[in-house]
Amino acid sequence: MTISETQTAISPSKITSGSIRHIGYRPDIDGLRAIAVLAVLIFHAFPTVLRGGFVGVDIFFVISGYLISKVILTTLYQGTFTIADFYSRRIRRILPALVTVLASCLVFGWNTMLADDLALLAKHVLGGASFVSNFVLWSEAGYFDKASELKPLLHLWSLGIEEQFYVVWPLLLWAGWRLRIPLLPIVVLIGLASFAMNMVGIHEHPTATFYSPLSRGWELIIGAALACLTSDSGTKAISHNRYFAVVTSTFGSAKVRSAVSIIGLLFIVYAMFRIKDTLPFPGKWALFPTVGTILLIAAGSSAWVNRVLLSSRPMIAVGLISFPLYLWHWPLLTFARSSYPEGLPWSARLGVLVASAVLATLTYLYIEKPFRSGSRTRFKVSVLCVSMFVAAVISGCILKSGGFASRYPEIIQRATEYNLDGYRAALRNRVCFMDIGQDASQYAPECIDKGTAPLWVLWGDSGAAAIYSGLRGLADRSGQFRLAQFTSSACPPMIGYEGGNLACSRNNQWTIEKVRELVPDTVILAGMWGEYARELLPSTIKQIQSTGVRRVIILGPSPAWKDTPSRIAFNLWSSDPLHRVPSERLDYAKYGMGHGAQVQEGLDSRTEIAEQNLRSMAQQSGALYISIAEKMCNEDGCLMRESASSGEAFYLDIVHFTPHGASFAMKAIAPELGINDR
């Protein structure tokens, strides 16, 4: 999530003499900004404390739309509006803090990140520098995309939406003003169209709806509508309307304004505690924070909540540093998480937030304010634009080079390779591995091998899909069996299982019916077993056996890690004074998810517990249990690559095998599968 960049037009001490032409300073809006940024920070650092804190971004959207439109309309009415002046102010407002954070992330990433991680960071710096982060993240969304908590600049997506709004909005208002077209009806119609796109798309295209400026623009436009309604020209245009006269008369009452401000605050509080990230958002749920924000702004600075709470000195202080505070907090949290792969402790999270506040204050005082105040405006704008351009060029070079893997030895380069495209192709993503949003009707014909050899069915989740390439190699080399792949994201091979993937139950039912139709020789059940309750597995095995299948195999879980083995290896190499290449085996007691893992929601995700449980189920149900972990691990640790001289990574992330890992594991268990591997 990100934060709006718009600051109230004039700070408590007037920034420039020219600012007198713009709207007056409202301390309560800084206080409202403080509520928004604190909500987002709490959500990111302590998500279980404030599950709906991410709606702070929506609050900022409304504030931005209101303030920017108010400034544009006021200067249009005064005859002082120019496009050059508008963008000069935006550049001096946004770029000082943004360039500082982008440059800091690049420097830190160069010294601490793997090549692929650094290349991804460079890609996001480019997106942030060109204000298209929302489109970049939209294109990356997918099951095997890098986890969001590992993207230091994930939070710039909404800054992209705002800047895209600022490209179009001033020109639209200026053109409407010059053509003497009533602005309020146009603003309302555009806002309604955007809201309609949001409501239609949230269920069918949730990712696009979340990131698209077309479906999020209404949140800024609702603030713009209030600005139009309360501007001099807007007031004059509808002052003859008797309903408007009634509303303005009623709103003149201090008690009514205070009541409106209380209702607005309650809307926002309700949104923060009621909305969760599992709900379809924005959709209708975004109305609570946006309408609440509009009510608070419309109530005016003299309303009780605005005067007492929002205009208090602590709230104003936080509001003034809100933009750099938001820019700093997410990268710091992300980099801190890389140092605590087992989970960031509360004390560290609090420390990150304190550090964010300190850096935000320093950025505001010594970087932002000097660029926003004083003379030599053109020079400052030029410096900022050149600085951003340099950051973009450096990022482009890093991205083109693949993250400059030459920074470390070749064996470390290979051990830390992250080939997502190759990985997706190996597991036949969206062809025979159904991603979220796909159902079994989309399995391609090639998911079932043709021929006369005995048919083996691979059934399971992404963990099962990850071993497909290894089984494929066995089948091709031995010629002893054909292979069918029916795998689905977050969907273990258990009939009746319902989880985060809404299509899972239907996909599993489709698979058992397909098994009845095909009557294969062998069905292999595989998955990340530690992630699921397994009480449905015995009945699933019985249903498979009832179809006439000769053999049911339960494939045990692969060793899982607290952090990606490639990152562990890189950290061991970089922290070693002699830069010695780490062993091919990692200490599983120290780095493995199977030891010391926390038990949550009744599930014990430790590898050895899952192994014991699955082995017992297999014995009782007449299935064959084969352990992958036994082939990967010994008393010295578990393999992350094949040998001391081989740098080919076995893991894409903390649990999914790469094709190299899948090939090794399947070769290792080939005798237990009854295969004579060449």
Unreliable segments of 5+ consecutive residues? 1-21, 595-604
Number of individual domains: 2
Structural class: mainly alpha
Straight-line distance between termini: 52 Å
Helix content: 55-70%
Question: Helix segment count?
Answer: 28
Largest sheet: 6 strands, parallel
Q: Compute the gyration radius: what is it?
A: 29 Å
Rough shape? elongated
Report mean pLDDT, rounded to a whole number: 89
Going across the major beta sheet, what is the strand order?
A: 1-3-2-4-5-7
DSSP summary, beta strand count:
9
* Strand residue content: 5-15%
Summarize this structure as a short list of keywords or feature phrases.
single chain, 678 residues, mainly alpha, Rossmann fold, 2 domains, 6-stranded parallel sheet, 3-stranded antiparallel sheet, 28 helices, 5% strand, elongated, disordered N terminus
Brief write-up:
This protein has helices spanning 27-45, 56-78, 83-112, 115-129, 133-140, 157-178, 183-204, 206-211, 213-230, 232-238, 242-251, 254-274, 287-299, 304-310, 313-320, 322-339, 346-372, 377-400, 410-415, 420-426, 462-478, 504-518, 537-545, 565-575, 588-591, 607-621, 629-632, 659-673; strands at 433-434, 455-460, 482-488, 522-526, 551-555, 585-586, 624-626, 633-634, 637-639. It is mainly α. It has two domains: 17-406, no CATH class; 419-595 and 603-673, Rossmann fold.
